[in-house]
């Protein structure tokens, strides 16, 4: 048995007929606010940041941490150079706390749906390309068949979405598992490869060239996703492999709206998902002044997947959308 599994048993075992541990914890003073606090500490890695997230003072947060450690009779955190790190006991407690909070959220969602007569709500996160090619058509299907379902969509990078998924702010995501997260935490079904391209404004000097190579690109301003994101890293790898200098003038943003605005108003170049580029180029407004460069190289990104958290069942409305996205991905697959 793994250490943290053993700790789970010690902290939360409920198979004693004489004294159920969960009841004992509640009688000892464990509260929902404690559960929210340990989850916030795990997310933010600092007691002060966790306090800010919960809109309480740092002294109050410190008192809550002390209360939790007293109730559980275990040290939950230890100080590190830039804040705090959860101990094995803390990680086990945070994992169970997150599950409890999620279940309470699902109770609220289900009861609200029953009271209002609607079909519930779905929280979906997606990277850019599948948001357009997969999520939008599936959402349209769900909305037509079940008008009462409310779908909440967030388009962000995989790094952000995966952490939101673990924090139960998303039901499932269309993204990739970041390298710094344990893949065993997730259910992963690969559904597609994201292709990217370079966009410029209408009338850009590079459009006069029938084919653009990497050597033509470093002299212009660039709009990149934040450092460390997959698309940014892939572009940098292409430059390095070709022995071409990296662009020196760069604006970093994850906003496609800001990216488009900068490209349309300057000679800047931006890498974006091809599906997004085609969509923007077809728009009749100023955003439609975007053009796709014809390059002598391909920009293929690591495959994206449908991702959910292991051990966390999808609500019925989320499962419906999940299945429709999976079905559409298979229809679009070249196989």
Automatic annotation (TrEMBL):
Pfam families from the xrefs? HTH_1 (PF00126), LysR_substrate (PF03466)
InterPro entries for the chain:
HTH-type_LysR_regulators, LysR_HTH_N, LysR_subst-bd, WH-like_DNA-bd_sf, WH_DNA-bd_sf
Q: Where is the signal peptide?
A: none
Q: Where is the HTH lysR-type domain?
A: 30-87
What keywords are assigned to this protein? DNA-binding, Transcription, Transcription regulation
UniProt xrefs under Gene3D superfamilies: 3.40.190.290, Winged helix-like DNA-binding domain superfamily/Winged helix DNA-binding domain (1.10.10.10)
Tell me the protein family, please.
Belongs to the LysR transcriptional regulatory family.
- Name the PANTHER family for this protein: HTH-TYPE TRANSCRIPTIONAL REGULATOR YBHD (PTHR30419), NITROGEN ASSIMILATION TRANSCRIPTIONAL ACTIVATOR-RELATED (PTHR30419:SF8)
**What protein name does the entry list?**
LysR family transcriptional regulator
Q: Which organism is it from?
A: Shinella lacus
Lineage, broadest ranks = Bacteria, Pseudomonadati, Pseudomonadota, Alphaproteobacteria, Hyphomicrobiales
């Amino acid at each position: 048995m793994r250490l943290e599994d053993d700790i789970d048993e010690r902290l939360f075992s409920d198979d004693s007929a004489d004294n159920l541990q969960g009841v004992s914890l509640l009688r000892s003073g464990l509260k929902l606010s404690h559960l929210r606090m340990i989850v916030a500490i795990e997310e933010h890695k600092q007691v002060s940041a966790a306090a800010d997230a919960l809109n309480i003072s740092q002294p109050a947060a410190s008192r809550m941490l002390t209360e939790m450690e007293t109730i559980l009779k275990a040290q939950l955190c230890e100080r590190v150079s830039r804040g705090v790190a959860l101990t094995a006991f803390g990680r086990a407690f945070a994992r169970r706390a997150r599950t409890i909070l999620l279940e309470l959220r699902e109770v609220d969602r289900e009861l609200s749906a029953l009271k209002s007569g609607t079909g519930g709500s779905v929280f979906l996160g997606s990277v850019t390309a599948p948001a357009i090619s997969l999520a939008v058509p599936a959402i349209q299907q769900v909305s037509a068949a079940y008008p009462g379902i409310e779908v909440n969509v967030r388009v962000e990078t995989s790094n952000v979405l995966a952490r939101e998924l673990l924090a139960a702010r998303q039901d499932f995501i269309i993204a990739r598992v970041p390298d710094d997260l344990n893949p065993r935490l997730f259910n992963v079904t690969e559904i597609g490869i994201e292709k990217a391209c370079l966009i410029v404004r209408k009338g850009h000097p590079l459009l006069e060239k029938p084919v653009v190579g990497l050597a033509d690109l470093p002299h212009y301003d660039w709009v990149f996703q934040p450092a460390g994101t997959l698309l940014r890293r892939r572009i940098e790898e292409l430059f390095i492999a070709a022995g071409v200098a990296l662009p020196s003038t760069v604006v970093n943003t994850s906003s496609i709206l800001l990216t488009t605005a900068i490209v349309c108003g300057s000679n800047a170049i931006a890498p974006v998902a091809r599906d997004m580029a085609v969509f923007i180029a077809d728009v009749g407004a100023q955003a439609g002044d975007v053009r796709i460069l014809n390059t002598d190289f391909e920009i293929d990104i690591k495959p994206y997947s449908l991702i959910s958290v292991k051990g966390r069942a999808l609500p019925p409305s989320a499962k419906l959308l999940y299945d429709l996205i999976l079905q559409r991905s298979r229809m679009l697959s070249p196989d």
